[in-house]
Fold this protein.
Amino acid sequence: MDLGILSLLLSIIGLLVGIPSLILAITAIKYQKPVYYIRNVTFDYKPFQDKVKKLKIFYENESIEKLTISRIIIFNKGNKGISKKNIVKNKPIKIELSPQYKIYEYKTLYNEQEERSELDVDRNYATENILPIKFEYLEPYQGVIIQILHNGDQSNLKISGNIREVKNIEKINDKNNYILINVYIFISSLMITIILPKIYNVISNIFKINETVNAIVCLTFGGVLIMILTLCLLKIKEIPFLTSFFPNDIPSRYLRILNQDWTVE
């Protein structure tokens, strides 16, 4: 067999074994990644009140100019569970609204593992603009949705707290990043147009069978390559420092709940 052909074949086999093994080794590292996402609906009454001087809007006898319903997803995007033991005692997880605004009411809208996580607002320590969050355990890839009613807007709302092994609770938004998906499409296209013909030549030189069989073997090999690339892409998504290069799938996971009737009981 020609040394050049043998070298190419060994290189392909090396890549097929080496790259997935490296990705599996990296994704096997356990990590916690708490994130949160906020979706709002705001009712701004001030423009109407400016036009109609006698118009007043009240919430429980309190005159208001704006009312916002916020639905907050708190989610563990890591592959390691978060226990309440991981929370720094004097820096608990809490939903904070800027001091000049007020939280009128709140409720847990959805909890994937209510019995296990017991994640809820700690009502004993809740104030007009701070809602401490208590929980036992938050599983990997599990979350909770808390709805709050207040008179601020999204820029006035945040989640803070200190979890050991984690720098901060990351806020995610609706921006979608397709960098690694585009890289995957590029590599797949490159493989189909350039690498597969070379593989066909290798197979033809090795097996010396008729062209139809060679083509079938080549296409099968190419299909296996694309499948391995796809599996690698799915695993790469779990690598902590690469998750921001993928579309944000958390809102879509809870789309039905996030978009359900925006009324307050």
